[in-house]
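Quick illustration, no need to memorize.
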Amino acid sequence: MANGEAMRNTLRKRNRILKALSDSSQTKSELTNQTGVSRSTIERAIRSLQELGCIKKQSGKYHLTTAGKLALDTYQDYVEATDDLTELHKVINDLPDNISVNHEFISGASKSIADPQVPETALQESNKLLHSATKLTGLAPLSLPSYPDLLQSKIQENGLEVELIIEQNVLESLHEVRGDTFADFVEHENANLFSTNDSLPCAIWIMETPEGDYAGITIYDQGGVQAVLINNSEPAIQWARDVYDEYRENATEVGKL
C-alpha cells in the first residue's frame, strides 16, 4: 500500500484521535475516556498514527507532530469541501459547461438556497451587501424586475458605482419594458454598462464595501433565483474578477439608448 493511501485511510478512520490530541497531549487512558472508543482501538490507532509520523510520545503522553497537525487540517478541509459539494451539487450542476467554478470559491462560501415558494429570499444576504457597497461589478445574464430601480436608488443614495456586462437581448428587453427610466440609468455617470452577444453563464459579481470585498454567484433556474453563494476570500474574489475580465474583453460599451 502506498504511503499516501495509508495516510488517507488512517485519517478517515483515526481523525477522532487526532482531533482529541489537537486539544491537548493525552495518555491512552485519557484518549479512551475522551473519545469513547475501546482501549484496543486506541492501541491500534496510536500504532498506525505513529508509523505515519502523525503523533509521538513524550513524558508519558501522546501529542501531534507537525505532520499530524497538517494532516488533521487537510482532512478537515476535505470533509468541509465534500459536505459543500453534497449540499450544492444539484445547484452547481445546473451551471452551463462553459463556466468552471473554482473549488476555492465553493469552499467556505455562505450559501442561500432559494425557497421554491419565495425564491427571492435567497437574495437577502447579497442585498444587504448592496446597501453598503461602493462598487458593483459583474455579469448580468438576466434582470430581476426590481433590480434596475434598486441599483438606481443606490447610485443616488450612496454614490454606488455600477459596472455590468449584460446580454444584448436582456438589454433590449429592459429598454423596451422600462423605456426612459432605464435609459436614464444607462446614461448616469456612475453606471458603466457593456453588452455582449455571448451567453453569460450566471450572475458572477464582486461588491466592494467599506468592510471589504465580496464575490458572489447568483444562480437562476427558468428566470427565478435558485441559489446565491458569497465568499470574501482572496482566491474567490480573484476568480470572480478573472471571469469578469474574460467576458469584458469581448463586450461593447453601451452608450445612449
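Residues 3-74 form a domain with the Arc Repressor Mutant, subunit A fold (CATH 1.10.10.10).
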